[in-house]
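User:
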Amino acid sequence: MKRDFLFALYQTPRGKLLQSMEASYLKRSITVSCKQTQLQIGGLGWERDFVDCSLYQNYLILDAKRLGSAEALKVTAKAYSLPIQTESMDLVILPHLLEFDAQRFRTLREVNRVLKPGGELVMLNFNPFSPSVRFQFVWDRKLADSWRAHFISRARLLDWLKLLNFEVLNTVEFGLDRFTITHGQFRTGYPSLLTMAYGVKVVKRQYSLIPLAAEFKRKAGLATARAGVENRLPNY
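Assistant: Predicted structure:
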C-alpha cells in the first residue's frame, strides 16, 4: 500500500475539509453493535474522529506500517492475505485503499471471504474525474510511490461489487464543502462528476441454490404414479 499521496492531500485546506466530511460519513456508517467485530484495512491516524475504540473494543486496524489510532487493536499484514478467520467480521472499512493497492482484486476477494453473510462493507475512493484531485496528483508527482495510484470510477467499482454479490445500501459524494448521501445507486449528472471523492456502503448477500433437478425428479415421480392409478381405475 503506497498512500503517500493520500496523507499529503489531507494536509491541504481542501484535504482537511474532505477528511472532516469523510469522518462524519464513516461515523454514520458504523451502525453495528459495539460487541460485534469490525475491521479497518489501512490506517488513517484520525480514527477517533469517527469511532470510539474504548467502546468498540473489537475494532481492528490492519496496516502494513501499523498506522491508526493507538486505542485500536492492530495487525501488521497484507490486505490481499488477511490473517483472519472466514466469515468472522460484521463490518469492514476500506478508506482510500484500493486506489493504492496493486493487488486490489485479491484484496476484494479477501474482504468478501472474511465478511459474514449480511455483513457490511464501507469504502472511500477518490473521484478520478475531479479537477482538484488531478491537480494535486500532478503537483505531488515527485512522490514516486503515490504516482503509481490507480483511481477507480464509480461504475467500475459497482461492477466489481456486483460480481461478489454485494448489494448497495447507500452512496455518498463529497463536494468542496458538503457531502450528499443517496440511498441506492449514485446520482447522475454533470455536478456529480466534479465531486472530490465518493463512498459506498454495501451488504454481503448469500443466496441458496435450489436443487431444481431433484425437484423435477420428484414431480416426475408423482406424475408417473398418478398415471398408474388412473390406468387401474375401472371404466364404467
